[in-house]
Amino acid sequence: MSRDHEDGTVGKALAVLDQVAAFGHPVRFGEILAQSAFPKPTLYRFVQTLTNQGMLAYNPDRQTYSPGVRLVRLAHAAWAQSTLAPIARPHLDALSAEVGETVHLAQLDNAQVLYLEKRNAVQPVQMFSQAGKVGPAYCTGVGKVMLAYTEDAQLNRIIAQQSFHQFTPKTLTSAESLMEELDAIVARGYGFDDEEHEPGIICIAVPILTEKGRPLGALSVTSTTDRQTLKGMEKLAPLLQQTARDIAYDAANWHIRDEDS
Amino acid sequence: MSRDHEDGTVGKALAVLDQVAAFGHPVRFGEILAQSAFPKPTLYRFVQTLTNQGMLAYNPDRQTYSPGVRLVRLAHAAWAQSTLAPIARPHLDALSAEVGETVHLAQLDNAQVLYLEKRNAVQPVQMFSQAGKVGPAYCTGVGKVMLAYTEDAQLNRIIAQQSFHQFTPKTLTSAESLMEELDAIVARGYGFDDEEHEPGIICIAVPILTEKGRPLGALSVTSTTDRQTLKGMEKLAPLLQQTARDIAYDAANWHIRDEDS
DNA sequence: AAACCTAGTTTCAACTATTGAAACAGCAGC
DNA sequence: GCTGCTGTTTCAATAGTTGAAACTAGGTTT
After folding, report:
1. CATH number, domain containing residue A45
2. Nearest-CA neighbor of B202 among B117, B140, B149, B146?
3. CA 20 to 30 Å from A51, out of A121, A168, A213, B32?
4. In-domain check, residue A154
5. Which of B128, B167, B257 best tests the A interface by mutation, with the highest count of A CBs <10 A?
6. Residue A77 falls within a domain, yes or no?
7. Share of chain A above pLDDT 90, in %
8. Distance in angstroms, CA of A12 to C1' of D12?
9. Among B173, B251, B183, residue whose Cα is nearest residue B217
10. What is a single Pfam family found in this protein's UniProt entry (chains A, B) (predicted)?
């Protein structure tokens, strides 16, 4: 589950893919090599294979590599049949309309939080520009509530991978304080982000759980300390929990989907 | 370049990934096995590795696999740094507003057309739900114009992979007729889809070319035979070509981008 | 309850692909 | 022409992949 911990050739190749994606801009072979643990010819072959496969795109004019279009197609499939995202959409719309604050839908991707949807209350959706973003699990509302409901074995692996970087004075910076926080979350059924990631930004979050208590994802409402307090946001808990239950219910019962034209 | 033609373990694993994505719904191991050329344990290991890597998601409750969330993250990167999609966005908005018909932006993915963006003139964008779709290259406007400007070696490989399935009476069903059509497209600088893919649906398409004449993608305006004729749509050619040139210019000059919050 | 499936998982020796040091090619600049 | 840099190919040692067969876990039939 630890992604880089030996999955053979495939794992290594995908690590290279991640690496290229992480640059955030098209890169030359040399740049990848400089950051890579692989020797030159090995890396070269990986890059070639990935390019062949359409997972990387090569620009011959500039001699640069970037994540390939095949990923967009695969992500479309991932998106369409993710039980969560398409099902949650109408619920998010309703929630967003009601609370008038930023709403996030997230899932755990390895040890990170991956945002699937965002509602800004004002304007409509612009998918790729915000879905697909990642964030830390240990200092975001959605991250913590998902961790709170993760089984021990997996939780330990995930915690071992957290950086515990101190973003703000309020960031939890140790596994111990995080574990306490997770217990508190389970006890009350929802969690907060009390300016732990960004100063002035607070949020309340709830997990979306299967019947068996496994976290499918999480839901959050974000606001600022100017406009809101944690106490004030706590009033939203019942509404959030109900929305989470509704999404979980739909996810459990409405599994088969097909494409729209 | 032919994707499945031997790229070692990595290629095989990615073929499995495609296969799972192609189902369009979460599948059990047995279902994949039934469609797979790989023996049981081999396939099993691929599926395990991909799941480990987050490229597939496993639902333990239902024992099903589906494309994983990691793809969404990678696609986000692909999207953000695709030279084409983010740059083209404002141009598509302008074009869409002006013509009042459906506008498509597409790229070649292996031998297929992959739609990156769509503007319906009416409502705003809903990304994942339409971007990421694929279509045939030999009988769509965008597909044909991109092929028309593809160098011979690659073109031959792509044509060899076309199904030439006859969607409508007007579909081109042979490599020869397609090649003639491609010559005609280069001669006039733009192409049509004359009800070749769907009856009643027509379109005009132009390539987006680099300085060196390599096709980055294509742009099209689609309409129906009720409302429009090919002759009528031909009037849009100069506008489309100008938009394509503008996009190509921006793509060449504005290469570095970073994330938005 | 025993016997019997079926779907999923593990084992292990044969085999084949991967690996990376080294050597090579292409190309800009001096 | 030489020099330095980036990207590409070679090839023998190595390490990972392969898949028949055997096994386990659940459920179903006799």
Report:
1. 1.10.10.10
2. B140
3. B32
4. yes
5. B128
6. no
7. 48
8. 23
9. B251
10. IclR_C
